[in-house]
TrEMBL record, chain A:
This is Succinate dehydrogenase. The keyword Transmembrane applies. The lineage of its organism: Bacteria, Bacillati, Actinomycetota, Actinomycetes, Kitasatosporales. Keywords: Membrane, Transmembrane, Transmembrane helix. The chain crosses the membrane at residues 32-52, 93-116, 156-176, 182-203, 244-263. It comes from the Bacteria. The keyword Transmembrane applies. It comes from Embleya hyalina.
From TrEMBL, chain B:
GO terms for molecular function: 2 iron, 2 sulfur cluster binding; 4 iron, 4 sulfur cluster binding; electron transfer activity; metal ion binding; oxidoreductase activity. Residues 5-92 form the 2Fe-2S ferredoxin-type domain. GO terms for cellular component: plasma membrane. It comes from the Bacteria. The gene is sdhB_2. CDD domains: fer2 (cd00207). This is Succinate dehydrogenase/fumarate reductase iron-sulfur subunit. The lineage of its organism: Bacteria, Bacillati, Actinomycetota, Actinomycetes, Kitasatosporales.
From TrEMBL, chain C:
Keywords: Coiled coil, FAD, Flavoprotein, Oxidoreductase. It comes from the Bacteria. Pfam families: FAD_binding_2, Succ_DH_flav_C. InterPro entries: FAD-dep_OxRdtase_2_FAD-bd, FAD/NAD-bd_sf, Fum_R/Succ_DH_flav-like_C_sf, Fum_Rdtase/Succ_DH_flav-like_C, SdhA/FrdA/AprA, Succ_DH/fumarate_Rdtase_cat_sf. The active site is at 329 (proton acceptor). This is Succinate dehydrogenase flavoprotein subunit. GO terms for molecular function: steroid dehydrogenase activity, acting on the CH-CH group of donors. Residues 453-480 form a coiled coil. Residues 495-597 form the Fumarate reductase/succinate dehydrogenase flavoprotein-like C-terminal domain. The keyword Coiled coil applies. The keyword Oxidoreductase applies. Its cofactor is FAD. Residues 10-439 form the FAD-dependent oxidoreductase 2 FAD-binding domain.
């Protein structure tokens, strides 16, 4: 919308004609800025860390642990990760870090996630920063236009994210074998990867699109008792979507960090058996 | 415990107004509406406030307390420190009438734009059969007391007057979800939710849910499921294709 | 006088609660141009406060239920003072009215086979109340509201104007009914419309209409401790009186046994009867279930004598009698009153009501079955009802008396073209209303009032006339009087003293001396109310609104006090300390109040005695003769002289 049609600044927002004339833009007295500030800080830190790690193309494999940032490896120039998810679909023309190929999917999943949308619209866009705190802009079109209309493809990312979660589960399985391929291994790394994959699954399954697909789209639950129960299960998880979103974000970063520390030799993986 | 509290209350009308200071007695167990009533009875007999049941069931006394949309009757004074200034203003998304009373006709106009419940043809009263699990989702939305706090807090119209024409607000998008999930409603509501009622303008920042005095999960249970249903119809070629094939397969 | 805004309609409905909206829907469905005028916003009426459910003998849970059983329960609850024809119509038509709501989009809780679930309630023999958790009133009002919107959408399609045939005038208060002379009615006049003001602007408005339906609800704001909202100032009753229609049974005021007693700011707010219907029990400060000591003789055979039997009833109703916590409301209210007086009350002057450990499903079930009670106590009193007992005590809840109406048509006998339905009308509930019967009353008689008002408006056709200018001038002068007063009295103070007077002197337990005293004080308050002045201007001025409402409250409170002083017996919602017994002679007496002079400087009411219409023989046969002897005089008993 052309800005000219909205009238001069001050005639819009909470001071639009007819509304109670109150000079203060908002009258909140609590620390409303805290939550968006925390969101921005943590997400920014994650972006910095993950960008560094994604481009590093190094120290992502320490037998038998694979960093979740690099699994599955779709390029052919990966470290040889025997028993692991080498799937060089892209062949050898890809010259950049193989992490970039796979990270698109979890990144897209989180970027279009209904919870993260709330978090970054509030934190980065101030749209709005907090309830009843005005937006610092003159017009707004929500998710009706490109690019934000693309948020509607969240469900596709859910499916990709589910595939990635399966692969990461496989990575956890092989983390129960030692460097010689014998079953019965467990180190701290195994537990780290296990915790990570559990969080990833919980977050992925608690997704609003997943809730819709398993049963939310139905009109009559009574005709689909199994899907109704699944929907009930996903709904309960969905109630914790925010917590799971953050927990799994920390989880994946920590899992990668752990593999990095072990692979770079900074740290020896404690073995339990 | 009785003490004197500092209140700042917006007084005025469409021509303008200001925050005025009052010192007023507060007793144990009281809510903000009690204090407003005490002001009416003792210091400002013409202070306009809309209220009705005083039990959080009718949704009349919506206003903003310390900048947050609240019901006056459900905000206990014990949530404030005795030395805290309590600022009360009318809702800031709707035109003011006088003092704490606003013109909420926007909401009634929007209500009228949502096509009403449409039962299957030929189903007579008394013949309705519905399962409890099928009505529960819509029942949650029917707890709505129409206080319009969600409409008031929603930045889509609070911050952008221009959007009022295109956007029905959380309350009425939830009404559409209620009907779409009603086990016996046969009308098609999904495309209209996006095209006529502005569901796409919602960016699910959840303020509607935060302020709902009935604790209805407006965003998670109504708006997002509605967005997913719209995605089925408008943005998901696979679902569209699947529906086409299934319809052809089933032969009708 | 200045030009006032004028609207012409076929039917004007005053009040937008359940009865008003149902009447408006009916009149509009019959094709008439209908207006709804209400003091609050559309959809905020006091009906939303109703929690328990709608009584209708659909027999979904217990197939033995039927209209005859419902009729019997209603008459018993009202101690046979009910107009039997109203109770009959009500019992017969209630199921249709509930099913119709469903076809307009209402979502009641369901039985396992998909029908409307029904719950137990005080005084009802079988599970009978259609409900949605404990917010049934909200469901009812929202459904009717949405039905009106649906009709407006139809008009929009047909005429391009959604309000072509049905318009809601919200936040508009009617202060006088307008009439023209007509020899064909008892009062010598017929309806010509209504005069009122917009709360928002203070401007006056006139509705020209041949038929008016009064559906304004009750009078609770005349009492200090009440579950009623500010709107319940007896407007409809006063409007009817002033137009020349009488009020009957005004001495019967129901004190709901369980209102909140703490904190003070919410004192009186209702704690739904379903708390007891779903297992809640009343305890005194000694932890005893005292209700077993208060079962009156007339109910001895119907109620459990031991807690063990009472508890079994919740799961096996065929073989056990119901617990006495579910006695009719008047009995429970008096019992609580006695316990508190005997010094066995709770810290804040009530008794304890608890559901803790009373439901098989534990905390989860409590929250699911009583969501708004859980919410209400949590938010308003900081009490978690799943872990602690509630403190409750009686609160003024409902007036059984009201405008005298013809049972079939809801027309007032006094004034042609004037109809009344819902709480504002009298007769249906006798001396005590059963829980759940109010919502069904609204629907059954709301529809009938709408239907007959519409018929009347159609029949009158060309003969309709507008009220004389003098009436409008007088109404305007009356409404503006508070601005002209010097040495003004504070209307809020007058109101508080009125409430205190009624609470102390014409409350649950009544005595002759106190009521005489009350009448003297009411006279004084009338004089002070005449001097009630207001500050500021007419735009949304609550002080002014209250000053105008005082006239109505004083009139109806006088009716209550005069009738209560006259009736020398105790029955249902009228308990005389000096006449504790129920009298079969008094059952036949109907006390009616009418205005002495509607144009007088100081308004006052006069009391007349009428006789109850004898019950039809086939209805009498629904009762055992033994039971009838408890209520009727020998002469009234059937089969006496063949």
């Amino acid at each position: 919308m052309a800005t000219g049609t909205t009238g001069p600044a001050g005639s819009t927002g909470t001071n639009a004609p007819g509304r109670a004339h109150i000079r203060a833009r908002h009258l909140r007295t609590d620390r409303w800025w805290l939550s968006p500030a925390v969101t921005v800080t943590i997400l920014s830190a994650f972006i910095v860390y993950s960008t560094w790690r994604a481009f590093a193309n190094d120290d992502y494999f320490a037998e038998p642990y694979v960093s979740p940032f690099y699994s599955p490896c779709l390029a052919s120039e990966c470290d040889s990760m025997p028993m692991s998810a080498n799937a060089p679909l892209f062949g050898d023309w890809w010259g950049l870090s193989p992490a970039l190929l796979i990270l698109i999917f979890p990144l897209g999943f989180r970027l279009t996630c209904y919870y993260y949308r709330k978090a970054y619209y509030r934190g980065f866009w101030a749209s709005p920063s907090a309830c009843a705190v005005p937006e610092p802009r003159g017009s707004y079109s929500g998710e009706t236009r490109f690019p934000l209309i693309l948020q509607n493809i969240h469900r596709y990312f859910f499916w990709f994210a589910a595939v990635v979660a399966v692969i990461l589960t496989w990575d956890v399985l092989i983390a129960f074998r030692d460097e010689h391929g014998a079953w019965g291994h467990m180190g701290l790394g195994t537990l780290v990867l296990l915790a990570n994959v559990l969080l990833i699954w919980a977050y992925t399954l608690s997704c609003h699109s997943c809730r819709h697909i398993v049963g939310g789209k139905l009109k009559h639950f009574s005709k689909h008792p199994v899907r109704y129960r699944l929907w009930g299960f996903v709904s309960r998880l969905n109630g914790r979507h925010m917590e799971l979103a953050w927990a799994s974000l920390f989880g994946v970063a920590l899992a990668d960090l752990y593999v990095y520390l072990v692979a770079s030799g900074a740290f020896d993986d404690p073995r339990f058996f | 415990m009785t003490y004197k509290a500092d209140f700042r209350i917006w007084r005025g009308d469409t021509d303008g107004g200001e925050l005025r200071d009052f010192k007023v007695e507060v007793n144990e167990g009281e809510v903000v509406l009690d204090i407003i009533h005490r002001l009416q009875a003792t210091q400002a007999p013409d202070l306009a406030v809309r209220w009705n049941c005083k039990a959080g069931k009718c949704g009349s006394c919506s206003a903003e307390i310390n900048g947050r949309p609240r019901l006056l009757c459900m905000t206990r004074m014990s949530t404030f420190a005795p030395d805290e200034v309590v600022t009360v203003t009318p809702m800031r998304t709707f035109p003011v009438i006088r003092d704490l009373v606003t013109d909420v006709s926007f909401n009634y106009a929007k209500a009228r734009q949502v096509p009403s419940f449409t039962p299957p043809e030929g189903l007579k009263p008394g013949e309705y059969r519905m399962q409890q699990v099928d009505v529960e989702r819509s029942q949650e939305f029917r707890k709505c007391i129409e206080c319009f706090l969600c409409q008031n807090t929603c930045h889509v119209i609070r911050d952008f007057e221009d959007n009022k024409a295109a956007f029905s607000g959380p309350r009425f998008l939830m009404r559409i979800a209620e009907l779409d999930m009603h086990p016996l409603d046969v009308a098609d509501r999904q495309k209209a939710a996006q095209e006529e009622h502005g569901l796409g303008l919602c960016n699910i920042t959840k303020c509607c849910t935060d302020v709902c005095p009935e604790h209805i999960h407006i965003t998670d249970n109504a708006l997002i499921p509605m967005k997913e249903r719209v995605a089925d119809r408008k943005y998901d070629p696979l679902v569209w294709l699947g529906n086409k094939i299934r319809r052809r397969g089933s032969g009708d | 006088m200045s030009e006032v805004e004028r609207h012409s309609y076929d039917v004007v409905v005053i009040g937008a609660g359940g009865a008003g909206l149902r009447a408006a829907i009916e009149a509009r469905t019959r094709g008439l141009r209908t207006a709804v005028v209400c003091k609050s916003l559309f959809g905020k009426a006091h009906t939303v406060m109703a929690e328990g459910g709608i009584a209708a003998s659909m027999g979904n849970v217990n197939s033995q239920d039927g209209w005859k059983v419902h009729f019997r329960d209603t008459m018993r609850g009202g101690k046979f003072l009910n107009h039997w024809r109203m109770a009959e119509l009500h019992a017969k038509e209630a199921p249709d009215r509930v099913w119709e709501l469903e076809s307009w989009g209402a979502l009641f809780d369901r039985t396992a086979d998909g029908r409307i679930s029904q719950r137990n309630f005080g005084g009802h023999e079988y599970p009978r109340l259609a409900h949605v958790g404990d917010r049934t009133g909200l469901e009812l009002i929202r459904t009717l509201q949405q039905r009106i919107v649906a009709l407006q959408q139809e008009d929009e399609r047909e005429f391009g104007d959604p309000e072509a045939r049905l318009k809601v005038f919200q936040e508009c208060t009617v202060t006088r009914l307008l009439t023209v002379p007509d020899a064909g009615s008892e009062a010598g006049n017929r309806i010509a419309g209504a005069f009122g003001y917009w709360r928002e602007s203070g401007r006056f408005t006139v509705f020209d209409a041949p038929a008016v339906v009064l559906a304004t609800g009750g009078i609770g704001k005349g009492f200090k401790v009440t579950s009623n909202s500010w709107e319940y100032t007896g407007d409809g009753q006063a409007l009817a009186l002033l137009a020349g229609a009488p009020l009957i049974n005004m001495e019967f005021v129901q004190f709901h046994p369980t209102g909140m007693v703490w904190p003070p700011s919410v004192k009186g707010i209702l704690v739904t009867e379903s708390v007891r219907g779903d297992g809640g029990v009343l305890l005194n400060s000694e932890g005893k279930r005292f209700m077993f000591r208060y079962i009156p003789d007339v109910f001895k055979e119907k109620y459990a004598q031991t807690p063990a039997e009472g508890d079994r009833w919740y799961t096996d109703q065929e073989n056990n009698r119901r617990p006495p916590e579910l006695l009719p409301r008047d009995e429970v209210a008096r019992a609580i009153n006695s316990e508190v007086k005997a010094g066995r009350g709770s810290p804040h002057g009530g008794v304890f009501l608890t559901v803790v450990g009373r439901m098989a499903g534990g905390t989860e079930e409590i929250r699911r079955k009583l969501p708004s009670m859980y919410h209400q106590f949590k938010e308003l009193a900081d009490v978690d009802i799943t872990a602690e007992a509630m403190e409750v005590g009686p609160t003024c809840h409902y007036v059984m008396g009201g405008i005298a109406v013809d049972p079939d048509t809801a027309a007032t006998p006094g004034v042609l073209g004037l109809y009344a339905a819902g709480e504002v009308a009298g007769g249906m509930h006798g001396s005590n209303r059963l829980g759940g019967n109010s919502l069904s009353d609204l629907l059954v008689f709301g529809r009938r009032a709408g239907e007959h008002a519409a018929r009347y408006a159609e029949e009158i056709g060309e003969a309709r006339r507008e009220a004389a200018q003098e009436q409008l001038d007088a109404a305007e002068a009356e409404a503006l009087a508070p601005f002209a007063v010097e040495s003004a009295e504070n209307p809020y103070t007058v109101h508080q003293e009125l409430q205190q007077t009624m609470n102390d002197l014409v409350g649950i337990i009544r005595r002759e001396g106190e009521m005489t005293e009350a009448l003297t004080r009411l006279d004084e308050l009338k004089a002070r109310a005449a001097k009630a002045g207001v500050e500021g201007h007419r735009q949304y001025n609550p002080g002014w609104h209250l000053a105008l409402d005082l006239r109505n409250m004083l009139l109806v409170c006088e009716c209550v006090a005069r009738s209560a002083l006259e009736r020398q017996e105790s029955r249902g919602g009228h308990t005389r300390d000096d006449f504790p017994a129920m009298s079969a002679e008094w059952r036949r007496v109907v006390l009616a109040c009418s205005i002495v002079d509607p144009d007088a400087e100081t308004l006052s009411v006069r009391l007349t005695r009428g006789e109850a219409v004898p019950m039809r023989a086939d209805l009498l046969e629904l009762f055992e003769r033994d039971e009838l002897t408890k209520y009727l005089t020998d002469a009234e008993l059937p089969g006496k002289d063949g």
